[in-house]
Amino acid sequence: MKKNNKAITSSAVESVYRATYGQIPIVGTVLTELAFDFSGRIKQNRLNLFSEKLKSYFESVGEGQVNTENILTEDFHDLFEAILKQIAFTKSERKMERFKNIVVGQIKSPNEFESVERFIEITARLTESQVSILLFYYTNVKLRNKYDEQISQLSLNLDETSHKYGESNAKLELMKTNRSTLSQNNSDLTNLDVSIELQQQQVMKEFKKRNDASNEIEKIKSKRDKTFGGIDHDKLGISKSECEYLLSDLVSLSLLDKRAATAKKRISFSYYTITSFGKNYIEFVENV
Predict the structure, then answer these.
(1) Model-level pTM greater than 0.85?
(2) If phi over 0 gives left and psi between -120 and 50 gives alpha, with beta otherwise, what is residue 237?
């Protein structure tokens, strides 16, 4: 009975609104169409498109890859309902794809309800420019970590080559000292000179290896320093002021962090970097 009363009330309200819009001169009929018929069709089309995206995905995977137990939970029901509400007001297919990834992600490997709930809210809120900004800084951090690993490995190599160079050089100096104690007509002098020449060649090899390792580290450090650079707003097709606003908004959402640092010659600068939460979000909704 309550459901019937609710349906009757809803129908009555719609009749009142239709009559009200219909009284507006010139555009009344059009507004009525937009408010009820056209709006309903748009929402249904969006929901249908989202359904097709889910269907296409699940047709491409085997049953063994889907844990249906993760679907039969209260949390999943609430999240799926929240996503469908967002889909009804989403015209961007890219956003639909992200919502689809959230649904799939929760079925495959569920995250905490609160985190995914925020992912849904953030996905609905972010513009494509902001997603591009996040992907830019996500890539930057991955590159920076890659360069840090390379620098760490090369630093070990530099320590090793420096040690070998030091040993070879010390041996050369000892040989030169021993030579100075020998008289010019000593029969061992010729052999020692040959040994000294060979040792000098070895020292030069070790010196070159040490310099090469040091130069390689500096090259990678230079590449790493470039990852602290900001995003080019022109490539996003937006103004500098709009880009700054979008960056601030991403910071407020805890997706980006603004930090201060000191470069060479004690020059201070600030830079943006993606947060752990931002990294988790991007990996969850973009499948990167």
Answers:
(1) no
(2) left
